Amino acid sequence: MKKILVTGGAGYIGSHVVKALGEQGYEVLVFDNLSTGNEWAVLYGRLVKGELADREAIDRVLTEFNPDAVIHFAASIVVSESVAEPLKYYRNNTAIALNLLEALQAHGISRFIFSSTAAVYGIPQVIPVTEQTPLAPINPYGTSKMMTELLLRDLAEADRSFRYVALRYFNVAGADAGNRIGQAYKNPTHLITRALKTASGTYPELQVFGTDYATPDGTCIRDFIHVDDLASAHLLALEHLLAEGESALFNCGYGRGYSVREVLAAAKKITGVDFTVTEAERREGDPPALVADSSLLQSTLGWRPRFDDLEYIIRTSWAWEQKITGRS
Q1: 248, 252, 250, 249: which is closest to 307 by C-alpha?
Q2: Average pLDDT in the chain
Q3: What architecture (CATH level 2) is domain 3-122+130-173+224-252?
Q4: What's the confidence (pLDDT) of residue 220?
Q5: Which residues have a catalytic role annotated?
Q6: Which residues contact residue 210 at a Cβ distance below 8 angstroms, ignoring those fewer than 6 apart?
Q7: Which residues contact residue 85 at a Cβ distance below 8 angstroms, ignoring those fewer than 6 apart?
């Protein structure tokens, strides 16, 4: 039984990957400070509460657990917040990753999966985006993730025993089909979650930030990937590394984009609620369109998405939203 350390495994995406790891028989230890994660979301393995900035705490966990690989999710992820508080993002996303990597090197742990983002591409000139698209982030969130990717690249170049996979997520949404876990942020910024919370009455209205983009209906276009399909990509990346596969970067998306207006129309259809939508100015740091070319992930790791359906994504999200608001 392989042992996997998951940092940030009590969060939204991390908890779905922990679920997938547990279902496949891996022994899992989650290290999380619970600043945005939840203890109840850890369905498998053991949870250790701690800070990745605390090198002694990391060393204790690595010594005791001695993992075969590490999957690193712990990070700050709100684009608009990163623009307002850049130092927080460089500390939480780059400096803490450096601290973790130094600890792993000291303990001889050489298999690492990194939770990266399509924000590293900034405003790409060509859609869909391939892994060869130049990195040009336009906000501190994207830059902080890019810097960690560069750390990984340079470490792998200097230490030939170290192998990593960085997964560049596009827009992650949806919830566990069994309705056990899902998004539970205190102040969610994800479009689908905000829409469903508006439909459930948590918020009085939903704001659309920018309606004058150079897109067919003037709103931003995004590639939405179901969280369980993203979790399966992590397991394939793990299998790749445990089988002595080479370091790699992969986009994680479906290769199709939906505009904000299209997503809201689908949310209204599924919930049956004609919730209020208002228009607002653009948010700083939002690219007009981000759509993935994930053919490399499919050809290299054999990834086959199962839930490439916007309505399915929204249905699982809506079931979860009804559960956590007590309306089910």
Answers
A1: 252
A2: 96
A3: 3-Layer(aba) Sandwich (3.40)
A4: 96
A5: 141
A6: 218, 219, 220, 280, 281, 282, 283, 286
A7: none
pLDDT in tens, 101-153: 999 999 999 999 999 999 999 999 899 999 999 999 999 999 999 999 999 99
Give residue 117's identity as a one-letter amino acid code. T
Closest CA to 36 of 78, 84, 95, 96: 78
Tokens of 259: 């505009």
Residue 325: Cβ within 10 Å count: 13
Is the domain spanning 191-222+255-324 CATH 3.90.25.10? The answer is yes
Q: What is the domain partition of the chain in residue ranges?
A: 3-122+130-173+224-252, 191-222+255-324
pLDDT digits (tens, 9 = 90+) for 229-247: 999 999 999 999 999 999 9
Closest CA to 124 of 114, 134, 111, 112: 134
